[in-house]
Design brief:
Layout (H helix, E strand, L loop, with lengths): L2 H25 L4 H12 L4 E4 L6 H11 L4 E5 L6 H5 E7 L5 E7 L6 E5 L6 H4 L1 H8 L1 E4 L2 E4 L5 E6 L12 H5 L3 E4 L5 H11 L13 H11 L6 H13 L9 H6 E3 L3 H17 L7 H12 L4 E2 L1 H5 L4 H18 L1
Parallel strand pairs: 1-8, 1-9, 2-5, 5-8
Antiparallel strand pairs: 3-4, 6-7, 10-11
Family: Belongs to the MoxR family.
Keywords: ATP-binding, Nucleotide-binding
Organism: Pacificibacter maritimus
Length: 334
């Protein structure tokens, strides 16, 4: 593909994404950063973990995204008694008219294109692990038989950050499957006023399909064709490697406060996310500032503070931001 063709495709897709964002924000008012991160995760072909208190509009956002992106959506309410078969499906024994018996596979809700895993940490680890293969390999295995999922396949999971009674923390392997963690925080006063007026009347925000599933797949392919400058690549490597304790590249801040750091999948996620951010902004290539801005959402669920750092009240978000700024300044000075 020539540079002119690439520019033309990026411009056309950027215009459509602008329409899609406008449609979503009619239902999910304000919180532009949250909307951008979820759009970016879908454009990268990944999954997102939405962390926020009840009543913040997480489910409403996912429902709007499903409609706007033209995806077949499904919802699973995770509870302690939820079983893997309730998500993946199961085989049932059927008797034919002639008396012969055979097993027939009945698909579960995971056979969709956009799965809302509501309050994912309320299910047992056994049930949580049922999503591992689906999220990574886009297929599930039932009774030794592999079943492919319909592309594109995305999981948007929600989690309450405060209420931990009756919940099961997501294991590191599960967290690493999420491309990005999206923190849904309280809106400001003006945004909350707009929400109040828009959602308590007789009419709700109009949401309509802007893209199709095939167009999303094409967009995901286009993302991987976008050029990335050496300075962006090197900053991604600097940042990810600097966040790993017990390595030569880790700063003293990381070595003393971080228990474990991000793996190579974090660098891959950051590389894709900065491209998606540039695309959403209508730019042809990402910048080093994109790396700094997206470091927190991409890395925070792939790292953990030590017990001592948590006891002292340190924040992982603040630590990541500090490391990112330090690495950016060193790159600029070099």
């Amino acid at each position: 593909m020539s540079r002119n063709d690439l520019m033309s495709e990026i411009d056309a897709l950027s215009a459509k994404l602008t329409q899609a964002k406008e449609s979503v924000t009619r239902r999910f008012i304000g919180q532009n950063q949250v909307v951008d991160l979820v759009f970016s995760a879908l454009l990268c072909g990944g999954h997102a973990l939405l962390v926020g208190l009840p009543g913040m509009g997480k489910t409403r956002l996912v429902d709007a995204m499903s409609t706007v992106m033209g995806l077949q959506g499904a919802r699973v309410q995770f509870t302690p008694d939820l079983m893997p078969a309730d998500i993946l499906g199961s085989e049932v024994l059927e008797t034919a008219v002639d008396g012969t018996r055979s097993f027939r596979f009945i698909q579960g809700p995971v056979f969709c294109q956009l799965l809302l895993a509501d309050e994912i940490n309320r299910a047992s680890p056994r049930t949580q692990s049922a999503l591992l293969q689906a999220m990574q390999e886009k297929s599930v295995t039932i009774a030794g038989q592999a079943h492919k999922l319909t592309p594109p396949f995305h999981v948007l999971a929600t989690q309450n950050p405060l209420e931990q009674e009756g919940t099961y923390p997501l294991p590191e392997a599960q967290l690493d499957r999420f491309l990005v963690q999206v923190d849904v925080e309280y809106p400001d006063r003006d945004t909350e006023r707009a929400i109040l007026l828009a959602t308590t009347g007789t009419q709700d925000g109009d949401v309509h399909a802007v893209l199709t599933a095939d167009e999303l797949i094409d967009a995901q392919a286009l993302i991987r064709k976008m050029p990335v400058g050496d300075s962006v690549v090197e900053l991604i490597l600097d940042l990810v490697r600097a966040c790993r304790p017990d390595t030569d590249e880790a700063s003293n801040l990381v070595s003393t406060r971080v228990a474990w750091g991000p793996g190579p999948r974090a660098a891959q996620a950051l590389m894709l996310m900065v491209r998606a951010r540039a695309l959403l902004d209508g730019r042809l290539a990402p910048s080093v500032q994109d790396v700094v801005d997206l470091a927190g959402p991409v890395l925070i669920h792939r790292m953990a503070l030590t017990f001592a750092a948590r006891a002292e009240g340190h924040s992982l978000n603040a630590l990541i931001a500090q490391v990112a700024q330090d690495r950016l300044q060193k790159r600029a000075a070099a």
